[in-house]
User: Which sequence fits this backbone?
């Protein structure tokens, strides 16, 4: 028996893995800097410099740049040690082939350090890498039967799938001016850099992305003061993508290949701006949502009909949702806090179900403060965040923070911030499609020789189910029972033509 099918070409997701790796390194204090008394903070940035798919394996060439901030004895000045770590990470992922397109992301989960001796420090960094592999695939979706004597029940379903994938490398260069009230910079201690896609449009095989870059930096002024800078700026990038002519949406993500933020001297001889240079990889997934007529059931009028089904990997598009919450946490310190010099938040990379209708993740708060004794100290604490949301796709979850404040409170420190969880809901149930059908034996003839049957039906039965039971059609039943609302319920007495 021949089924009429729609052929769908798309990018099939063959692998999705999150890999965690820990790297450590020892570093000597430069001769120009004093001995270490206390470690104040450790920050790190993870880079993916190259990626390669092989048979059942993915190789990532990665590097980490960690910065250790420390205080010396009897000094109110902060010192920094930069610790570079480079390595190649190979992970076994079954089903990956060299022809697959890789979409990757990197994140630092935790970073810490310990003092080996006053002139040597050991740094440990935990990183997470998200690896997604796409391959050209196809689906045949049956929507009708080409032969007579067969009744087909169909349903319209909206399916969402990736039509194309694009990866583009580019370099972002920007001069970040210091505001008039901010002192001139002498040295950048550490910085963080993230990029967020705000809008993406695909037209005529090309995607145009409008995004925002967010820079946070800790620097030392020319008079030795510790200053923080937070700045955002917009940029636009475009890339070729072999998406179809139908309307597409785009999922865009970024990861860093390199990052530099240095003091730059202007014509006055002062450093009134910071020069930024970042090597960036932009990942684009073109997503299309389209309605399909899909066979749900079928039967033969004169002969038995058997069919086989399978479940589609494609799913209806989930609804996007964002949940915002305000968090407050108090940290105990061994010293009376005079003032907070700076605070930063490092969110976890992973999310988990902590209840039937709750998603949990973590975020680590790092603070550097000055105590009433005039000494500098650092403190960190991992906080658990929970958001009330059910049926969420954890792979799509993203955490963002805003409006962070830290202040002395009751002899300790209180951190307050707003956090927003963005994700997509998971559609309930799998979609089953008919793969093949074949005729069987003829139905045995009714020995009574009846041409019609009078029967009373229940409210739970549909016209389709009644027609299938008696090997007739829904149209034939409705035609001979005009004036009776079969679908209204109430157990009506109806005539079934045979």
Assistant:
């Amino acid at each position: 028996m021949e089924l009429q099918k729609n052929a769908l070409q798309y990018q099939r997701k063959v692998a999705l893995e999150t890999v965690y790796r820990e790297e450590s390194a020892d570093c000597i204090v430069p001769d120009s800097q004093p001995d270490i008394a206390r470690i104040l903070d450790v920050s790190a940035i993870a880079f993916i410099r190259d990626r390669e798919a092989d048979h059942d394996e993915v190789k990532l060439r990665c590097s980490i740049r960690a910065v250790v901030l420390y205080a010396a004895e009897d000094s109110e000045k902060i010192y920094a040690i930069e610790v570079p770590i480079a390595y190649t990470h190979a992970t076994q992922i079954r089903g990956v082939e060299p022809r697959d397109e890789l979409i990757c992301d990197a994140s630092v989960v935790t970073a810490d350090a310990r003092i080996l001796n006053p002139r040597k420090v050991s740094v440990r960094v935990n990183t997470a890498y998200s690896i997604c592999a796409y391959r050209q695939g196809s689906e045949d979706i049956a929507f009708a039967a080409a032969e007579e004597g067969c009744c087909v029940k169909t349903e319209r379903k909206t399916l969402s799938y990736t039509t194309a994938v694009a990866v583009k490398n580019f370099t972002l260069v920007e001069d970040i001016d210091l505001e008039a009230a901010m002192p001139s910079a002498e040295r950048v201690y550490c910085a963080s850099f993230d990029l967020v896609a705000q809008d993406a449009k695909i037209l005529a095989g090309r995607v145009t992305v409008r995004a925002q870059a967010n820079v946070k930096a800790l620097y030392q002024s020319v008079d030795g003061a510790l200053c923080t800078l937070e700045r955002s700026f917009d940029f636009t990038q475009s890339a070729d993508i072999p998406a179809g002519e139908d309307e597409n949406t785009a999922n865009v993500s970024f990861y860093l290949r390199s990052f530099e933020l240095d003091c730059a001297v202007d014509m006055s001889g002062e450093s009134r701006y910071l020069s930024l240079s970042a090597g960036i990889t932009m990942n684009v997934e073109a997503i299309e949502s389209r309605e399909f007529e899909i066979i749900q059931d079928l039967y033969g009028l004169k002969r038995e009909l058997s069919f086989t089904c399978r479940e589609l990997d494609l799913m209806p598009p989930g609804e996007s949702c964002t949940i915002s919450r305000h968090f407050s946490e108090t940290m105990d310190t061994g010293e009376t806090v005079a003032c907070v010099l700076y605070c930063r938040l490092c969110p976890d990379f992973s999310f988990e179900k902590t209840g039937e209708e709750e998603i949990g993740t973590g975020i680590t708060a790092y603070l550097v403060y000055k105590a009433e004794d005039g000494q500098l100290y650092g403190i960190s604490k991992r906080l658990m965040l929970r958001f009330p949301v059910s049926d969420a796709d954890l792979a799509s979850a993203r955490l963002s923070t805003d409006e962070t404040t830290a202040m002395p409170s009751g002899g300790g420190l209180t951190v307050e911030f707003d956090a927003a969880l963005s994700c997509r809901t998971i559609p309930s149930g799998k979609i089953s499609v008919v793969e093949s059908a074949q005729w069987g034996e003829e139905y045995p003839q009714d020995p009574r020789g009846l041409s019609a049957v009078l029967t009373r039906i229940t409210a739970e039965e549909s016209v389709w189910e009644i027609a299938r039971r008696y090997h007739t059609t829904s149209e034939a039943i409705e035609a001979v029972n005009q004036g009776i609302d079969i679908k209204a319920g109430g157990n009506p007495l109806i005539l079934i033509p045979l």
About this structure: The helical segments are 463-469, 474-480.
